[in-house]
Amino acid sequence: MNASRFLAFAILALVVGAVRPASAQSKPVVALLATDRALERAYAARNVSAALVFFAPNASVLGGGVPILTGRASIRKSLAETFGLSGLSISWQANKADVAISGDLGYTSGKNRVSFGPKSKTLPIVGKYVTV
Known about the structure:
Elements lengths: L2 H10 L14 H18 L3 H5 L7 E2 L7 E2 L1 H12 L5 E11 L6 E10 L9 E7 L1
Antiparallel strand pairs: 1-2, 3-4, 4-5
């Protein structure tokens, strides 16, 4: 698995902190951030099945320099490969999150940090992400 494909999954993900103080966030935004933190826990546990439930059946994953992955089967395969990497570490920090007034669409965006391999030779990959 090449680093670009690996980075695509790191970019998906998602939220660690709050965008603004919880008291200033709407209930839907608070729920969205909680969902993203749950996905982060699934990634940290390297649990493919737990992570996959956060993807719609027809979801697409876009990463630099790799083909678009569409559908849970291709996403499952790539997650399994990614979670199998030695020394994998994925974290992210949202700097924006919002939910449409209708409540049926939301997004998060921010910075992510990914590393894998032997700790003595690991260089983090820092990037940006957006989830919808």
